[in-house]
Amino acid sequence: MRKEEAVVRIVGRLDLEFNGMLDQQKARQIIQEVLYDYDVNPAQRSLVVQDDMNDKILLYLASKKIDGLAMRTLEGYSRNLNRFAYYMRKNVEDVTTMDIRMYLASYAKTGVKNGTIGTETDILRGFFRWLEDEEYINKSPLRKIKSLKPEKRIRKALTNEEMEILRDGCKTYRQKALLEFFYSTGCRLEEVENVKKYDIDWQRLQLKVIGKGNKERTVYINAKAKVHIQKYLMARLDEEEALFVTERNPVKKLGRRSIEREFDKIEKTSGIKKSIYPHLIRHTMATHLLNSGADLGTVQAILGHEDASITQIYAQISNTNVEHEYRKHMIQ
Fold first, then answer.
1. Rounded to whole angstroms, how far apart are CA atoms 148 and 145?
2. pLDDT computed for residue 310 by the predictor
3. What range does the domain containing 10 cover?
4. Which residue in 18, 41, 105, 239 could disulfide with 22, CB within 3.0 to 4.6 Å?
């Protein structure tokens, strides 16, 4: 057993023992310091005829958790890698490039889109790169395999008129506050789920959220959002610290699925002929900002994108706007 593998296993066990309350980065640092002057070798046991794929997947996921990968991302990695392990049934060092190609071809036959195959490939690439870095294998079998690019499609944001239709469809303080909070901040669903009442700086109309990769960023609320959020908070009688909570006792934080159901209700009562969901509001906010002249870097920072090319996907520019910009800048 390699020393780093021992560290990952120890931190993983401690995290389970302390019910997820362990500071994994600090624990890892301490254990590494203690083991620095020691050689760590596995105990010799009788040979067991069983592949090591599942064991290495668990180690990989434990390592990524220590690195701060979000729980939902880890769950996605786990599903994909376990599906791969079930198909492959080999030791990691025996997996070949042809094995990977055959697996991806088999997965493609299930009817999934190119983007899904691309995601699957990227997850496998990360896993085998880690195996290579940790010297479990000599060379990743995915070195010669390229990721499939997702089908390009124009993302259609809601128009200003459609946003007004949704506002008219909101029947409760909570629905109005939710809609305006998503639209003004551009937050992801999991970010909104974890916002606390005291997170909001009412003087500066801003707050900090924890996004993907446990990275903190500042987002902003506008005057309309402020009015509706404060009305919602004033109508509440509970002491729960979460910004959005359930309506029935015992009052608790409003979860992801409950937030999605609120948008389902808004869609139904508004009568709009489109599917309404939280990410569409985030996309709409970004598109409206870009179409109003905000620069790509600013929108990228607000959305929490590391890659500007991802932000560019949100730029849904109307023909009217293109014509306006042409006539504004074209020398007559």
1. 9
2. 72
3. 1-35
4. 18
